[in-house]
Amino acid sequence: MKKLLAILMFLPAMAFANNMPEIPDSIDGNEESGAQYWTTIDTDGVNDDSLMQLEFVYGDIESTDFGMAFMDSDGNLTGMLSIFNSTFVEGQTSSVVFDFENNMVMTYAGSFDISDSLPVFAFYFTSGEDTVYSANDFNEGGTDYFGMYVNSNQFIGFDLTIYAVGKDGSTIQVGANDVTIFAQVPEPQSLAILALALMGFAFKRRTA
After folding, report:
1. pTM for this one?
2. In this predicted model, what pLDDT tens digit does every residue of 64-118 receive, in sequence order?
């Protein structure tokens, strides 16, 4: 009897899992990249400032939040900054401003000090009580909840299309410009090397 009850309790959860929206293999002809970490495209080659433009294309956002998650050289999350929340409507845009000179990132939600972080970030999607990340290491069981589609045509459409599925089945699609893949998945060792390189770059600029 106990075994039967356990099976009956498990069936709804299994049915819900089977009804979870799948991550598309491609969007607008662009294949899912598998990339998990991202960085901004520097606008003038001096690494001092940059602007990301994002558009909320569609999704279930009544009680959700979408934004960026930052990390340190050990791969630990240092903070999160919202880009879209439930007040946004489909077709509305939002900007992310990187001020590298002052180690700040700004959105409509406020600012975040990235002095202890790297210019490498993941995206997050909160639906209901749960938050999932484009970096699978931050997800329970390493589950993949994001599809990341890099545009092969730099003249038409977004540089990056983001598709995310929440644990409750909610979905969101966002288009982003001036963002590019961080070439390597930042393991703690590679993050530390990158941090040292950036410190040397900053020192060189101050002494120039």
Report:
1. 0.78
2. 899 999 998 888 999 999 999 988 989 999 999 988 888 899 999 999 999 888 8
Structure tokens at 112: 């975040």
Per the structure, the complete domain to which residue 140 belongs is given by 33-207
Query: Residue 14 falls within a domain, yes or no?
Result: no
Neighbours of 1 (CB within 10 A): 5
Domain count within the chain: 1
Q: Please report whether residue 41 resides in a domain.
A: yes
Distance CA 118, CA 205 (A): 18
21 located within any domain? no
Considering the domain boundaries, does residue 5 fall inside one? no
Task: Supply the pLDDT for residue 11.
Answer: 40
